[in-house]
Each structure stands twice: as C-alpha cells, then as structure tokens.
Amino acid sequence: METSTAKKAIASLNPLFCIRYSATHKNLYNQIYKLDPVKAYDLGLVKQIEVDASVIENNTSQAYAELLGFKSNTKSMQAILSIYQQNKDKVNKKTLNVKHGDDLYKLSNNMDIYKNGYIINSINSDEKYIKFLSHINLEQGKPHGYNQDEIQKSLIEATIENHLHKELRYKSLGIKVLSLFFIDKVKNYRDYDSEEQKGKFAIWFEEILQEKLQSTRYKDLYDFDINKIHDGYFSQDKAKKFKDSNEKNTKDDNEAYNLIMKDKEKLLDMNEPLRFIFSHSALREGWEFVLLMKLNLYLKNVKK
Fold first, then answer.
1. How far apart are CA 231 and CA 233, in angstroms?
2. Mean pLDDT on 101-122
C-alpha cells in the first residue's frame, strides 16, 4: 500500500477513511492499536514453549575441552576452544583462541588435568578438528571430558517427569498428553546391527518410566503395558527397517509423515496407550496443529 500506484488506486475510490491492518507496516498513520509479540504472548495468543535444561556441573577431575569453531588471520589459523581455567580458588570454563603449539596446561593456569599431552599439534578447519600431542582428536560438536550418555539420559528423565505431571493434572479433564522426542539417530531407538532390538534411548526410557510409575504419586496413572506407551515414527528402507531421515523431502519421509497423520484420531484416544513418540525429523512443520499435540518439553542442552 506504499507504492504510488497503490496510493492512486485507493484515492480513486474517494474513501471516507482507510483502515490498515498489517504485521509489517513501513510507515505508521494514526496508529490506534498495536499487538506485538510480547503482548500476544501475554494474552495467550501464541504457542508457549517450556524450556527445560540438563546442566552439566563442572567435573574438574577430567580434562575438559570443546572445539567451538575456527578463526583465521593473515598469520595463522586459530581454533576457538573452551577449557577449564583455574582462577584463585575457583575453576571456571574459559573460551580462548588457540594456535599450533599452545599448551592447555599453561592456558588453564597450570591445572594438573592438562599436564600430559594437551599441546595443540595441528588444526584442521576443513575437517573441523584439532589434534593434541597425546594423539587425542577433538572434533567440533563432540566435547572431550564428559559423558554424553549421561546428558541424554537426564533429558529423557526430565521429559518423562514433566509428562507424568501434566498427565496427572489433565487426565480428569479428558485431555490426553503426548510428548515428542526428536532424536539424533534412529539407531539409538531401534538397532538393526544383528537383529531388531531396542536402542539405548528405548532401554533408558522404559527403565526410567518404570521407576517413576512405582512411586505413590503415579502408580495408578497407567494401566498399560510399558512397551505400548512409546513408539517410533521413522522413515523406512526397502527392507522395512527404520532409517534416519534425509534433509531432502523424500518418499520415505512422506510415508512416515502420513503414518502419524492417519493415526491422529487413534493417538488422541485416551484408551490408546501411546503417549511418547520418537522421531527423526520426518514429521515436518504443522503436524502438531493437526494432532492438537501438546509438545511437552523443548529439550535444550545447556552446558554450564
């Protein structure tokens, strides 16, 4: 409505007044009402996301290092590294720019955990890794010095706990709560190395849920077999084995998407045991509206 053609067209109508409604006004004329993101959130007009965190406490008995990225200049290639650093009587994580030959023992202010072999021997920005004299390869996105399984397991536990709390709250109202896990690899839920078996996520999930359901608070919540409370919706290969989704919109991904769409009424039935869904990014945008699904928890890994 800001082009000269548009203005002439509106003027030719000889209107008594014009009312403009837009989310992207270039110019404001006698503004009478504004609904911005904050106000929309406060009024409950937009989806609200709950954020839970798995916090990794500093375990200073192990040499921690995380490769965050790379920085180049005219003289050398540098790596951006997060490590522990001793400052007086306190140990904190510190982000540093490091180069070939730098010694983490010195950069950490002489912490013994970096004493043997943590001298940077090579920096490879193309393949995104650095190598220490101790022959340890540190890849970007794969921190050294903490247990990734422990973090993932704690995130699953947090989701289950939040889900059970909501289920207990809404069950009497006839509202079914569903929770979704987006996972990194299908293999972590269904493993086909030898024959089909449960992956570590499925095993952890059942162990944690079984423990929670034994508590006085939740013991009467479900009357279902624990194996039927969770399931995976993934793409399949020609042998009907689950596989990781592709970044492209493939036929297999469409089939996984359609499968959950066709089952939406069944999923919403209170008598249907399924409450927890595992997926590998095959569901695409908009599916939660079709399912009327309450996304229980957005899992964000926060490293302290």
1. 7
2. 91
Q: Which residue in the block uniquely carries the two structure tokens 């101790």? A: 134
| pLDDT value of residue 50 | 61
Query: How many residues are listed for the chain in this entry?
Result: 304
Q: Is residue 121 within 8 Å of 131, Cβ to Cβ?
A: yes
- Return left, alpha or beta for 109; rule: phi > 0 is left, psi -120 to 50 is alpha, else beta: left
Give the angle 41-44-45 at the CA atoms, nearest 5°: 80
Any bridge partners for residue 242, and if so which? 236
- DSSP lists the bridge partners of residue 139 as 129
- 242-301 pLDDT per residue, tens: 555 544 444 444 544 555 666 677 778 888 888 998 887 545 544 443 343 333 333 333
Amino acid identity, residue 235?
Answer: S
Cα 136 to Cα 94: distance, rounded to the nearest angstrom: 20
CA distance 32 to 17: 14
pLDDT band at 146 (very low <50, low <70, confident <90, very high): low
| H/E run at residue 37 | helix 37-42
Tokens of 235: 């793409």
Q: Supply angle C-alpha 199, 232, 301, rounded to 5.
A: 70
